[in-house]
Amino acid sequence: MQGRPRDPALDAAIHQAALDLVTERGYGRMTMEGVAARSGVSKQALYRRYSSKGDLLLAALDSVGRENFPVPDTGSFREDLLHMVRAAFALHRDSNSAFSQAVAAEAAQGSDFARKAVESVINPRRELFREVIVRARERGEVTFADDDVLIDLIYGPMWYALLFDFDRLTESYAASLTDAVVAAARPA
Known about the structure:
9 helices, single chain
């Protein structure tokens, strides 16, 4: 026997409350009680959906990523990649990197959360970058054979900036990072 289907508007309110609290207070001071109060749901309803604040954070980040991470197809590898890198930077700038710092902090506490973060948030976004790389390879714009290395060339500097040098997430840096990946994608 199944209960009522979940209300997407309620899930959105819970996710937004969690993200707002992480941004305002930091992950360490975000509580399930605070999320319940902010979203207007009972703690019981919240705990039926999410067993921990880490699971709630991952669900909220997945939701935000799906809604705010477009995959363009301009016909140009550089333009598609630049659009995606700028979108990623903008998403993180809007949160003052609190989301990424929260994920990193929680992942450092246990491998189970780290695995969940990779599976539910990081890998799906990496696949979007892979989609752009594969299309560019089909057009002859990418000759480098290892997509994961190209994706790592984006994620490594981005995560470093998110965790240690947040002010680096500028439009100019997005363009420089994009140009470096494009150059690596088609070595001489």
